[in-house]
Amino acid sequence: MAKAAQESANSTVSEEEHKRQDHQKQAVQERQRQALSLQRENILSQRTSNPNRRAALEDALKMIEGQLAQLG
């Protein structure tokens, strides 16, 4: 009987640990999404007539948008 109670307690702890880990993972992903969104906004706000600089900004924007897509 005590063994069953211990297994039940272990299962509950394990479930709580998984929930905590999932919450942490979601929080990290949300912070990454926010940081990438800020970078994207910064790039979009920059204006330049220099074609090399414009190309670099376009490449950076593509990279950021790809990372955002991976995060879902």
SSE layout and pairings?
Elements: H1 2-45, H2 51-71
Helix pairs in contact: 1-2
Give the structure's gist in a few sentences.
The protein has 72 residues and is an all-alpha fold. It has two helices and no strands. Helix 1 packs antiparallel against helix 2.
Structure, explained:
The chain is mainly α and 72 residues long. It contains two helices and no strands. The protein has helices at 2-45, 51-71. Helix 1 (2-45) packs antiparallel against helix 2 (51-71). The longest helix has 44 residues, at 2-45.
Following the backbone from N to C, one meets helices and strands in this order, namely: HH
Which structural class is indicated by helix and strand composition?
Answer: mainly alpha
Spatial gap, N to C terminus = 46 Å
Estimate percent helicity: over 70%
Number of strands: 0
Q: What radius of gyration results from the CA coordinates?
A: 22 Å
Unreliable sequence segments: none
Largest sheet: none
Number of helices: 2
Q: Please state roughly what percent of the residues sit in beta strands, choosing from under 5%, 5-15%, 15-25%, 25-35%, 35-45% or over 45%.
A: under 5%
Mean pLDDT, nearest integer?
A: 90
* Global geometry: rod-shaped
List keywords for this structure.
72 residues, 2 helices, rod-shaped, single chain
